[in-house]
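Quick one: co-fold with 5-hydroxymethyl-3,4-dihydroxypiperidine.
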Amino acid sequence: MINRRQFMALASAATASLSMPISTASAKSDGAGKFPEDFIWGAASAGHQVEGNNVNSDIWLLENVQPTLFKEPSGDACNSFELWETDLDLCKALGSSSYRFSIEWARIQPEPGFYSQAMLDHYKRVIEGCHKRNMIPMVSFNHFASPKWFAAMGGWTNPQAPQLFADYCRRAAAELADGIGYAVTFNEPNLLRLLKVIGLPPFVWDMQGKMLDAAAKAVNSDYVSCLNAARIEDLDTMNPLLIEGHKLGRKAIKSERSALDVGFTLAMLDEISDGSDGGNKARDEMRDYNYGAWLAVQETDFIGVQNYERVVLTDDGKLPVPDDAQRNHAGRWVEPTSLANCVEYTYRTTNKPIIVTEHGIGTENDQQREWFITESLRHLQQTIQNGVPVKGYIHWTLLDNFEWVSGYTEHFGLHTVDLQTFERKQKPSAKAYSRIIKRNRV
Ligand code: IFM
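Sure, here it is.
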């Protein structure tokens, strides 16, 4: 067993060597760094974060009450509801074979008893737009935001929630399933559990409760709760209901097209033990809390892995981020081996096919993004070569967009967006990613 000092030295050395300027050496060597021929490449977005004016959604409600945890409201976002064709063109220009986006439940079913044909037709056009550009539409039926009326019924604390979600899935799938390449029921249904173990401070949970109370008052409800904004004491009630929601939602989607692959995605930390007994125990407990129940779900055709950071566990708790480690915008530890670790762990635990449905970095330093993408893909490719069936890699995210409570202050995009004119501009990291896609190798 190595001690903490040795571990930190090793971690720093690994980080330092990986922080070297990007080398093209391995990309040049024949055969090395090659991804499978049918590997799916793409970029992701999510309705509420890019479309704008998702006025019937629960998140819009939370953004606009007092007190709120949101730095600013989403407003027009990137105006992608209008500019979706531009976005598809940008995604295609990278060389992508897939575009991941979400359909917005609050647009499709703005009231419990009403489904909007116009909105279903809108998403049908987006799906057709993907096909016209030879991109596989990877479609999330829920990416955090839900209708306001659903949150006002208690959201995922309400035992009726799984059936309500499944009803929406069936109606949407009846119109859309034929054109979808991969369907995702939920995006990161485990996010709040992860935030709990990361150690979101008590005052944030407290503030979240106050924001939900204000939202309940605004819509005349006894209790408002949302998928990515809930009270800490509700997390254990929500998890089994979300799992049931996934199972019923998947069944409903498959009842419209049985051959369609339907999965869910998970927010994953790269939990590492320093090798001590306490570190191993803490890692296993953390993994069990974050993913245990989800990774036991058999009713899924794939699992979407989404990783952004690392945490190291020791006898004494979490290791502080080493001084020379790479950090993201929020100061958290980013490390290019993390994605491959998460993919490997998920596959070894479930034996299910994996799609990297999100991976990226919130940073103002686009060179850091370029380094992070390239080196993470280098490790991912090795993992695939070692036998882990990864079907594809979808980068988060196509555009700088509405980053939930952080508003427009955190940037994960391959393109900038002018929030007044909505003009998109490609960043250098997009060019680097595109080179990898077009050569199908790092
Ligand atoms: O922006 C989010 C996305 O909605 C879900 N996964 C993590 C991203 C970055 O925080």
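If it helps, The chain has a mean pLDDT of 94.
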